[in-house]
Amino acid sequence: MKEGAYHHGNLRADLLAAAEKALETVGADGISLRGLARDLGVSHAAPSHHFRDKQALLDALAVEGITRLADATSAAASGAGTLRDRVDALVRAYVGFALAHEELLTLMLGSKHHPSASADLAAAADRGFRVAIALVEDGQANGDIRAGDPYTLAIVVSAQVHGVAAMLARGMLEPIGADVAIATTVELVTRGLSGDE
Fold it and tell me: Which N-terminal stretch is annotated as signal sequence (predicted)?
């Protein structure tokens, strides 16, 4: 252990960064607080000042990921343009995140369903889902999106976008490629929301 390692500058942020890096190489099961402490050169007990256990660390990492994804999709979907433009931007932001952070995306979606999921995780997941609800509500207010329960429409859109993004990240759509998958998703989501036949 390094001299004075207990007085690490921003151990919480460094633990999260190291955990995200480890997530991409060894997966969630391969992460341990003890291993992260060793890698960062701090005492084995130091992480416990920030995370009570591994699940708390994974929850915090999921919250951080959900927040980043929500920020990216919100910025994309709130831009000017037609409904199709906004859906295209949202799909591309989500797919881009999924391709860059496949393991983090898997953790984000799985963690919120863990029995001991934190209130912060539930709030972050809700905020992330509100991006799709806002897109639907704005579109309904403008007359671009058909009438219907915004929650129901948003959950179906979210499922479609996530499904395509996850399949692209896992290489399952290689026969058609990312460009065709994205364009087709945008077309189907836009038509479905607008009620066009």
Answer: none
The answer to whether the CB of 86 falls within 8 A of the CB of 135 is yes
Cβ-Cβ contacts under 8 Å for 48 (sequence gap 6 or more): 33
Given the structure tokens 């708390």, which residue do they identify?
56
User: What pLDDT, in 10s, does the model give residues 148-168?
Assistant: 999 999 999 999 999 999 999
- Which CATH number do you get for residue 171? 1.10.357.10
Is the domain of 43 the same as that of 112?
Answer: no
Q: Which of 11, 107, 28 is nearest to 62 (CA)?
A: 107
pTM of structure:
0.88
Measured CA to CA, the distance from residue 145 to residue 95 in angstroms comes to 23
**Mean pLDDT (whole number) for 109-134:** 82
Q: Which domain holds residue 177?
A: 59-194
Handedness of CA 98, 103, 106, 107 (dihedral sign): negative
Q: Is the dihedral angle over the CA atoms 88, 132, 72, 20 positive or is it negative?
A: negative
89 and 179 fall within a common domain: yes
Task: Count the domains in the chain.
Answer: 2
Instruction: Tell me how long the chain is.
Output: 197
* Surface-to-core class of residue 189, CB atoms within 10 Å of its CB (0-12 exposed, 13-18 middle, 19+ buried): buried
